[in-house]
Design a protein that fits this description.
Helix content is 0%, strand content 49%. It is mainly beta.
Length: 126
């Protein structure tokens, strides 16, 4: 059985976005992946991908502190995706800017298939 997770509005939080300047003309997209509603509790080994025109440009996993980084990126717009079993998938457009480090803090919401009180699936979008 395959489940489509993600793509529903309001499922994810992008808490903070900031830019740090660096001397190289390439862009950097980095940040952290945490559990939504758990005060910064990081998610280790979450898969984080950058896509451009539907193709995977780069892929990595978060470290023990939930950090990820993509360096030496051409200045352009990418789709960032973050996922981990047990959590809803995150997707959002991000921009790599020349000479800047774009930092994103992504919160994933836990995925629940069954209600404790009902014997039917919970809705995909809350």
């Amino acid at each position: 059985m395959q489940l489509k997770v993600g793509g529903c509005p309001g499922l994810f939080e992008t808490n903070t976005f900031r830019l740090l300047e660096h001397s190289d003309g390439s862009g950097i997209v980095s940040g952290t992946v945490t559990i939504a509603g758990h005060a910064g509790r990081s998610i280790e080994r979450a898969k984080v991908r950058l896509r451009r025109d539907g193709r995977i440009v780069s892929e990595t996993h978060t470290d023990s502190a939930g950090r990820f980084s993509f360096a030496n990126l051409e200045p352009r717009t990418f789709r960032i995706e973050a996922e981990r079993p047990g959590f809803r998938q995150f997707e959002e457009m991000v921009e790599a800017k020349a000479g800047l480090d774009s930092i994103y803090h992504i919160s994933l919401k836990r995925w629940r298939l069954w209600s404790r009180f009902r014997r039917e699936p919970l809705p995909m979008c809350e």
